[in-house]
Amino acid sequence: MVQGFRQVPYNDLNAAREALSPATVAILIEGIQGEGGITTAAPDYLLGLRQLCDEKKLLLLMDGVQCGHFRTGRFQSFQRILEGVPNGERFLPDAIAMAKALGGGFPMGAFWVRDRYADLLGAGTHGTTFGGTPLACAVALKVLEVIHRDKLAENARTIGHYLQSELTRLAGKFPQVLSAVRGLGLMIGFELASNIPALAGNEKAPSIQFVNRLHEAGLLAIPAGNQKLRLLPPLNLRQQEAEEGIKVIEAVIARLAG
């Protein structure tokens, strides 16, 4: 853990408030937790954190490396989470960290800061391995062009909805293997049931065992905790490919249900 941070339960506004001290300068969260199990921030939580930070004169910082760059169907996850929520359109963090997806695989990172704080960091005051690379910026501009041209934000919503619906169907069909499904757009998580006999007696976590079985079947996924897995497919995933992926997942689940 990075020194100087107090870890608090996610989606718990009171816990965030109680963790504050005179030395606190900022609150840092993900709009949707990645490593933490694909947990989406509640709208009231985001709005409450913004109000709390304004009240205490703190910065509200967001990590958008995994949940940002149109993965949810909007540029940043908080925009998708707060769609149609009263006062949601007025929400804005003070800074957002971004990387990876910006360059479509080419190394790149970026840090957006609200205009009122833009003069706090200047060239050379904060080191960055991939900062200021003209080639990376050219690639990133082309990535944005392709996302807009091919309507990949809309695709993330459509295909993401299909995948979540199908995984929810599988959870209903195989409750002894799959217990929950969650996420937004193409950032999807599913939770394994407890005590799956086929995964018992192994030193590896159930999620890793399940991931290995998916890999052997030809589908890429990664763990998000001992019982949870993440699906983070490319934004240009096609319907046919999504259907093929669901068939692979269902086959693995069916064998575990045995």
Can you describe this structure?
The protein is of the alpha/beta class and 258 residues long. The protein has two domains: 137 residues, 3-Layer(aba) Sandwich (Aspartate Aminotransferase, domain 2); 106 residues, Aspartate Aminotransferase, domain 1, CATH 3.90.1150.10. Helices cover 36% and strands 15% of the residues. A four-stranded mixed β-sheet has the order 1-2-3-4. Helix 3 links the parallel strand 2 and strand 3. The longest helix has 22 residues. The mean pLDDT is 94.
How is the topology of this model organized?
Blueprint: H1 13-19, E1 26-30, H2 43-56, E2 59-63, H3 77-81, E3 95-99, E4 109-113, H4 134-149, H5 152-173, E5 178-184, E6 187-192, H6 206-216, E7 222-223, E8 228-231, H7 239-257
Parallel strand pairs: 1-2, 2-3
Antiparallel strand pairs: 3-4, 5-6, 6-8, 7-8
Helix pairs in contact: 5-7
Strand percentage lies at 15-25%
What is the domain total for the residues? Answer: 2
Helical content stands at: 25-40%
The number of helices is: 7
Considering the protein shown, what is the CATH homologous superfamily of the largest domain?
Type I PLP-dependent aspartate aminotransferase-like (Major domain)
Distance between the termini: 40 Å
- Main sheet summary: 4 strands, mixed
pLDDT average, as an integer? Answer: 94
| Top CATH class of the largest domain | Alpha Beta
